[in-house]
Amino acid sequence: MDERLRHQIAEWLTAIGIDAQPSEGIPTLVLIIASLVTALIAYIIVRRGVIRAINVVIKRSKASWDDSFMHFKVLEKLALLVPALVINLLIPIALSEHALLSSVVDRLLSVAIVVLMIRAAYASLDAANEIADINLVSRRMPIKSFVQLCKLFLFFVGIILCISVLANQSPVIFLSSLGVATGLVMLVFRDTILGFVAGIQLAANRMVSQGDWIQMDKYGANGSIEEISLTTVKVRNWDNTLTMIPAYALVQDAFKNWRGMSESGGRRITRSVNIDVDSIRFLTIEDINRLERINLLKEYLAGMKQQLTEYNQSIESGDDPVNGRYLTNVGTFRAYMKEYLLKSEHTRKDMTMLVRQLEPGPTGLPIQIYVFTNDTRWGFYEDIQADLFDHVFAILPEFGLRPFQNPTGEDMRNINTQLLRRRGTQPTAPTQQ
């Protein structure tokens, strides 16, 4: 068939005045040009006609996932396969009289087809990754890690296929030879293999997801996860610095994930105010009458007065606090703070809420407030916490309580001044050098 085609082309060239008999190069050249023109026409039809029509349909579509394929030009990359396949089909016919050249061109075209197919597959994987980001699937699973792994696998498959095509050998031979170099492969791609295994564990156990707030002091990471790749996890710290953590480190080392706090809608406050033990005492009747003007304590004081009166009368304790039960300023303060937290618009009433005593120490009696805020955002959380303890320190004098504070330099100077005055000596101002 090739000979007949060549003979017809030679007769046609002779008829139009071109001497094609002395050399077979002219019919071969015409066949090559015809093959290239046919491939170009096929590409134009697919690229300008079919793909343009599909893109119009995608733009008019209400679905959002197909826009990613248009963004990464998946169809355009697939269209490049059409002229390559056409040329691969027609060039051997044109070069049938040149066996060596035909073989070389055929192998090169096969390599080009493999490269174009892998390129289109890469674009499809990128589109799938973007679709996962849009649908928030990547927040639950490290999709990018699997995409990178697939790209790496396709890269090696492409390399093996290209080498086997150029060497005119079966790919199985090259795959079997890789077994000898397993040790080298393990050494070179150690982080990749560990990252892949870690990625599977992270995804299966849902240890981390994109957007999670994690804290890992070993690597100086304290911020939000921006990206989970095959080998690294990118964390944007709260000071806008970036920390790259090896993926396998999240499996091997300890870290703190604040996702549970964010999902629960409550963030915990655990802070104490240390009370000077010397300021703790029983409340007098005058103290109780004075504190009854506080709305948050009216119900508590009324109930406690009745309860304590009935108890003290039952045991005939008299008026001596040693023999009965009486209100203390620190206990009343705890009751006030509990009611204050219950009435606050910034606390979660369905979560643990405590105002408790901790073990006293050299710095006084710690009164700890254990409560959850209803806003987990960092700035708002800090504002709520600061406002809460502003109120705590400001209200303490109402109960006759003093916060514990180590003596300052001013305290020591006042003590020294008082001692000198008792001795009848006036303190002297420091001399200037």
From TrEMBL:
SUPFAM superfamilies: Sm-like ribonucleoproteins. It comes from the Bacteria. It is found in: Endomembrane system. The chain crosses the membrane at residues 26-46, 78-95, 107-125, 146-166, 172-189. Keywords: Membrane, Transmembrane, Transmembrane helix. It is a multi-pass membrane protein. Residues 338-401 form the Mechanosensitive ion channel MscS C-terminal domain. Residues 191-259 form the Mechanosensitive ion channel MscS domain. The keyword Transmembrane helix applies. Belongs to the MscS (TC 1.A.23) family. This is Mechanosensitive ion channel family protein. The lineage of its organism: Bacteria, Pseudomonadati, Pseudomonadota, Gammaproteobacteria, Alteromonadales.
